[in-house]
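Question thread 4412

I'm putting together a teaching handout and wanted feedback from people who do this every day. The idea is simple: show students a protein as raw sequence, then show them the structure tokens that encode its fold, then repeat with a second protein so they can compare. Below is the first pair exactly as I plan to print it.
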Amino acid sequence: MTSPAIDTKAFRSMSYGLYIISAKSGDTTAGCVVNTFQQVTSKPARVSVAINKENFTTGVILESGRFEVSVLAESATMELIGRFGFKTSSEIDKFAETKHETDAAGVPYVAEHAVAHFGARVIDKLDVGTHYLIVGEVECAEVLSGEAPMTYAYYHQVKGGKTPPKASSFDPDGGAAPEPAPAQGDAKPRIGWRCKLCGYVVEMDELPEGFTCPMCGVGREMFERIEL
């Protein structure tokens, strides 16, 4: 019997949010962007997150046995998302330029452009291949603003963002931001450059020598020319 084909486009119909997972072990802090955070039970309040095994944040979570989650608002900037989504905590302090608070357990969480935060204690871990599914019992939760939470669709379609390679929903053949519409009439088109890794767009005729993406840090060779 022939196995049915898997159309990866089907996965794009699933609904996700956008979250920053953070942790602290000793003097080490870490954080990363995920889209697979969810509530799994209400009594007791438990949540789960799927996070790549190779992610630096994963090791800090497992060492400390705790994690924080900030629910990002639609107002979250691409710079904030890029800092936590396309750079590694092993090389930079992501909280140094980010407004943050700490919970009662001393774990930092992002407090800017966030709708709510949750502090959880790890109670279980499931190996699911490239990722761990980590289950936590919520020990604190707080509403931070009345803004609308950002959905993954909003991040792609409105913000023009791309999926980090270590994300659960990464698809190397899809998920790119749509091409901008060409200029109409005789108006001279505006020229921009888009990062092929994270989707960041800068408007200028030519990228200068030594230019690096302010979101993910790649060089100018990773940018493609587009018309705005």
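The second pair follows. I'd like the answer to focus on this one:
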Amino acid sequence: MKSLKLFAFILIINALTKVNAQNISIGSSWTVIKNKNVKVHTYMSPTAMFANTSHIIELKNELIIVDGQFFAPYALELKKFTDSIGKPVTRFYISHDHPDHFIGFGDAFPDVKVYALAETKTSIEQTGQGVLEQRQAQFGPLIATKLNKPSVIQQPGEETIGNVKFIFEKSLNNESTVSLVIKLPELGVYIAQDIVYNKIHLFIEGDTKGWETALNKIIKEKTYKTILAGHGKEGGEKLLKENLTYLAFVNETITKSKNKEEFKAAIIKKYPEYGGEQLVDIYLNYYLKPSNWIK
């Protein structure tokens, strides 16, 4: 299971046993877009930590956050940023059940009500505590001491919050099995999270048809010019097409390669500027097992 192995392997590769909460690189934050009614900000962990993003929707009297962090210090940085705005955080949305999006914010935001799709809520209830304890054993104080689990099931549909229209949708079989998409039509913002990566290697587990379908769906929705990624900075249609091109190259390379070493060499050569090379190692060691490759 990806959520149980992902960061253990990162630990080995990056020698994170030498890292502590005092000397890790800091993240960054910025305002993506705004009008008189709403602002959208992004907090992002460093590229070396896979540029994991949390998005802050600033309404007139409140803040809404989409996705936490994996490491507790980055969640605390996120908390410092939201505190600087001077409005209370009233909702926390979790897009999907991968631990880099929900495991880190339990200490920083212990009392904020957490929303998620029913499938994500159930998954975190069943496996979240075990994942947290495993990561605590591996990373010590870099990991939060507790979870803030989803308590509210977010249903797909439209909702007005603080006089701003939100559209919630369920997306299936993209980078994750089930994910929550949040759209802000007033701003033309599409919060896609891990359906979209920006200059970070995409995490490939197998068939990519559902992922390609999700990306093409976003391209067709011309209302949305600003696409917020789960890893990396925001983009537009060009970024979506870059993701599709990446997936097409992955599938072509799977067919042409004889083994995982040949596959990885081709991916790194094609995308030398991308961060998250370790993600390629992880999925090649645990998840991507094409039948045509020599064992």
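Top answer:
Good format. For the second protein you could add a caption like this: The chain is about 35% helix and 25% strand. The first strand starts at residue 28 and ends at 34.
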